[in-house]
Design brief:
Elements: H1 3-15, E1 37-42, E2 58-65, E3 68-76, E4 87-93, E5 101-104, H2 105-108, E6 119-120, E7 124-126, E8 129-132, E9 136-138, E10 141-148, H3 156-161, E11 165-172, E12 182-192, E13 199-205, E14 208-218, E15 230-235, E16 243-246, H4 248-251, E17 263-264, E18 268-273, E19 276-282, E20 288-290, E21 293-299, H5 306-311, E22 319-329, H6 342-345, H7 363-368, E23 371-376, E24 384-387, E25 392-395, E26 399-401, E27 411-414, E28 417-423, E29 430-436, E30 447-452, E31 455-461, E32 467-473, E33 482-489, E34 496-498, E35 500-504
Parallel strand pairs: 5-12
Antiparallel strand pairs: 1-11, 2-10, 3-8, 3-9, 3-11, 4-5, 4-10, 6-7, 7-8, 12-22, 13-21, 14-19, 14-20, 14-22, 15-16, 15-21, 17-18, 18-19, 23-24, 23-35, 25-28, 26-27, 27-34, 28-33, 29-32, 29-35, 30-31, 30-33
Length: 507
């Protein structure tokens, strides 16, 4: 038997859970076990109107009397092969009035916002259809429904854009063991300043166990996102989490950031999500049990570099996280957070600094201060914000960076020597002002020497909070209309940076 086959078999045995002590792995395929298997269909044209989206935005796709165990759930994609978060999946056990499962359908299947063509994990998958294999035992009854709260009204159009067919397979049993929990899943999404507080994925009360989740993280409108968040599991009222993974990519099975290409393994995986990332992990042999409560949070660790809390507390550094948590527990469960309206469930728009806005100085204020040239070094799209006739600037060396937080999120940088040349009227007199900032405390803090028109401004260091540097320029020094600014890196492995350059007609 090949190694690949051995791994495949072992995964299946891990995933299929026994019910009432009856094993369900490959070794037991020949065992004749009691309990009849059945299925319920919905959504297709062969089914009653009440089980389709022709007449309602809410459709019950399965209603089953217990005791029984749901073994598989399938939803076919609509003909357009697209779904988003407008459609919710809800599940109710034993006649409860509030759902135990409440998620956008697509996110439940590790397909956040429905952007994927394919998902391939041990417990959920997608390819022109969605399939789930979580065992879901119940004692009295089960109700599974889809709820659409988007703008399209019931009718033929809604039927065409919703899943066109579903079936729920289940096995009837004589009883459900008292220590078998009910399946739960819940989706959350939040934009927050993670340096100020942690993202809360779950607050469960009762006895149960956490068996998996999928998590997205992104900075709307900007490439890049931190991976230094810790995943914290507070069990039974702990003040200090007894399980805390150090680094979000490590908790989903990777390291040194997520890889450049997607990787879908049976129990762990990663793929790009917009300009951010999605990670998933299922805890099979290592499910996290709790007797009274479980809080699951994502945030920076207590001993993490304080730079992360500082930078991700600033306006414009909002991260948007979303998650689906899967767990089992005995009822009753704590009420799930209310599901926001469909429009609020969509991913935040790709707008830099969402929900904040970059504020540029008013031209009138610049003129009043005597500014003749303003360069925001490294700013995307446009660096020269204001220039009067005869004034300009051009980088001779270096590269741009725009990954910090507001208000100064940008710079020009060079690993060795950054050179920027100003053009001014010949024999102009004025002051060159440079703003340097080291918000990420790069390599333990940047160190650089700075020269303007051949004059040394000395060694510049400890400017994590930002610093203005000034140099007066005489008519002789600007005789040819060229002023060279040089910042030279003085710390190996770091770089030299300049974020703002002003020429001010000030004597």
């Amino acid at each position: 038997m090949s190694l690949r086959t051995v791994i495949h078999v072992s995964i299946i045995i891990l995933v299929i859970a026994p019910v009432n002590g009856q094993a369900s792995g490959f070794d037991d395929l020949a065992r004749l076990t009691p309990g009849r298997t059945a299925a319920q269909n919905a959504l297709w044209s062969e089914n009653p109107l009440s089980a389709r989206f022709n007449s309602s935005k809410r459709v019950v796709v399965a209603e089953i009397k217990g005791p029984a165990v749901i073994t598989m759930i399938h939803f076919a994609m609509p003909a357009v092969l697209k779904l988003n978060r407008d459609l919710l999946l809800k599940m109710y056990w034993d006649g409860e009035s509030k759902p135990s499962v409440d998620c956008p359908l697509v996110d439940f299947f590790c397909d956040p916002a429905g952007l994927r063509e394919q998902v391939n994990t041990a417990l959920v998958n997608k390819r022109r259809g969605f399939n789930a294999y979580f065992p879901m035992p119940f004692r009295k009854s089960a109700k599974i429904e889809l709820v659409y709260d988007g703008p399209v009204e019931p009718g033929s159009k809604l039927w065409r854009i919703m899943p066109c067919y579903s079936y729920v397979m289940y096995r009837m049993v004589d009883r459900i063991d008292p220590d078998l929990g009910y399946f739960h899943a819940h989706w959350r999404q939040e934009g927050l300043l993670l340096g100020k507080r942690d993202y809360v994925a779950l607050k469960a009360k009762g006895r149960g166990k956490f068996v998996g989740w999928n998590v997205t993280v992104r900075r709307p409108g900007r490439a890049g996102y931190p991976v230094d968040e810790n995943e914290k599991f507070y069990i039974d009222g702990e003040k200090v989490p007894s399980i805390e993974f150090q680094g979000i990519e490590d908790s989903f099975g990777f390291s040194w950031g997520y890889p450049e290409t997607e990787n879908q393994f049976p129990l762990t995986g990663y793929f790009p999500f917009l300009k951010g990332a999605l990670g998933y992990r299922f805890f099979i042999n290592d499910a996290i049990s709790f007797e009274k409560s479980l809080n699951v949070e994502i945030g920076f660790g207590e001993n993490e570099n304080p730079m992360f809390r500082r930078e991700f507390s600033k306006p414009g550094s909002t991260l948007q996280l979303s998650s689906v948590v899967y767990w089992y527990q005995l009822e009753p469960h704590a009420p799930l957070d209310p599901m926001p309206p469909a429009a609020e469930r969509a991913p935040a728009p790709e707008e830099p600094f969402w929900p904040e806005k970059e504020k540029l100085p008013a031209i009138e204020d610049l003129k009043e201060r005597g500014v003749r040239l303003l360069m925001l070094c490294g700013r995307p799209n446009r660096e020269i914000i204001y220039s009067e006739e005869g004034y300009s600037a051009a980088a001779k060396t270096g590269y741009t960076f725009a990954g910090w937080s507001l208000p100064v999120y940008h710079c020009r940088a060079d690993d060795q020597e950054l050179r920027i040349e100003l053009t001014v009227p010949k024999k102009a007199r004025g002051t060159v002002r440079l703003y340097v900032i080291d918000p990420d405390d790069f390599e333990g803090g940047r160190r650089q020497t700075v020269r303007v028109a051949g004059k040394s401004l000395g060694l510049v260091e400890n400017f994590q909070e930002g610093r203005w540097l000034e140099q007066y320029i005489t008519a002789k020094e600007s005789g040819d209309g060229k002023i060279l600014i040089v910042a030279r890196n003085a710390r190996p492995g770091s770089n030299a940076v300049i974020s703002i350059i002003e020429w001010i007609e000030r004597f």
